[in-house]
Amino acid sequence: MLTARYPCICNLPDDRVDDDGVWSDGPLWNDFGNRAAVLGMIWSRVEEVLPFLVRTANSLGLTVFDSGGPTIYRPGPTPIST
After folding, report:
1. pLDDT value of residue 79
2. What is the pLDDT of residue 68?
3. In whole angstroms, what separates CA 50 from the centre of its chain?
4. In what helix (H) or strand (E) does residue 66 lie, and over which residues does it extend?
5. List of the chain residues with pLDDT < 70
6. Buried-exposed string 29-59: b where 16+ CB fall within 10 A, e elsewhere
7. What is the CB neighbour count within 10 angstroms for residue 68?
8. Which residues lie closer than 8 Å to 72 by C-beta, 6 or more apart?
C-alpha cells in the first residue's frame, strides 16, 4: 500500500530518485525492526507524504510517532485531515 504510492528509492531508476523519491534512505525493508519502523522522508515532501502515511498506518491499527512534530497519531474514529 505504502510503496505502491511512494516506492522505495532502491526501486526507482537513478534518474527518477530526485523527482519521485520521498524516502531519505533505502531499502525501506531495513528500516523495520521487530516492534517499530523508522521511516525518513525528504523535507520537501513531508507535507504530502505524512498525512498519507498516518492515514495508512492508522487504518492498520498502527500508531505513528512524528519526532519532527513532535506528534503522536493514534488510530481512532477521527482521521487526520489533509
Report:
1. 53
2. 86
3. 6
4. strand 64-66
5. 78-82
6. eebeeeeeeebebeeeeeeebbeebbbebbe
7. 10
8. 63, 64, 65, 66
